Amino acid sequence: MKSTSLARALGATLLLAATLGSNAQATETSATPDSALAGATLEKIVLVARHGVRSPTRSPAELKAQTGRDWPAWPVPPGQLTEHGRAALAAMTDALGQRYRLLGLLPATGCPAPGIVAIWADAADDRTRQSGTIMAEHLAPRCGLQSHALPAGHTDPFFNAVGTGAAKRDEARATNALAQAVARDRDHRPQPVQAALARLQALVAPDGCTGAAGPCLTEGLTLSTSHGTPHLKGGPLLASTIAENMMLAYVQGMPPEQVAWGTPDAAALLATILPAHGYAAALTRRQPAFAFPRGAVLSRAIIDLMADRPVILPDHSEIGPNTRLVLFAGHDTTLDTLGAIFGLDWAFADQPDFTAPDTTLAFERWRLKDGSRVVRAVIMHQGLEQLRAARQPDLTGNGATILPIGTCAGTALCPAADLHPTRIF
């Protein structure tokens, strides 16, 4: 890929991070087909979901060592799904089931026939395997659906093709991409990100940039290499983690004194600081040089499924052409990866984290009245307060948004034969 193309791709993702909380490019939809789909039939969907609410991946002691501040205790070990997270994900999956029963993909009564639904979860973490099980239980209640995965702890090529050797990252391209990100951050850090970092700096370590105790979150980024792999270092990346951990405490339902050290109006604070989290995603996992190899297997599977071609899972089982609903239980990284690969951007008015727990991306294939087939991308989510209260979102209304598919000339209804990844390399 030429450097000018890479800069353009990076610029688009940085713009997404900078406009977090705005109207962005997504448009509200409903479960009832719009005029363009009048008389159409929903034939097949592929869902890709982030797991439920988890605890921070580092312990309170480790977080204190990083930030100099005390962090709340969680009821589960680091990185594990919480009971509240289970309840919120169950509510989200109930809503998904309702949406696709209303749209006629799932039977209005009774259970799907054998082989109609396939659920596959990432084996890397307990939280993804458990999320797959919860979604199997609630997508079609009392129907005995099962979620499958590789043995616990195994790297799965569907979620990380590079980690299994199924795809290879071009380290020179990756290094160049990150070098450009460092330069762009130095010269053109978006104003919402500047505001987020300044707010976090004042909250976490007011004197951290003057040589006193605590981290400097507003410092510039640097490029480093470890064991031949390039990565970014600097305060904005730690700020991203801090912002996400505060969000997790809030949606876990922790009392005000345990969210951001009792800062008043935590919801408003999150809206201010979470652009730092979106910015870090844009600089790293949404970079094409990283996203494309990582998501090579999953993106190809989605294209094959939309074309009724069989897909072989990592356990050597097959998703056949008659399977109508396929669900992959993964991570926020999975959503960001597919967003980069298919040119999908989104943001929510009621949720400042655009890859928050339970957020689900759908690829829906519709057969039009004339017999032609189109694919529609839809992002579904729980608002911040819905996630905090473990409430079901309205996925027939403002909980679901149609996404223009960037790799299909920005159309919302992409001819099935034209669904493909961004062609950048």
Automatic annotation (TrEMBL):
InterPro entries: Acid_Pase_AS, His_Pase_clade-2, His_PPase_superfam. Residues 1-24 form the signal peptide. Keywords: Signal. The keyword Signal applies. It comes from the Bacteria. This is 4-phytase/acid phosphatase. It comes from Gluconacetobacter liquefaciens.
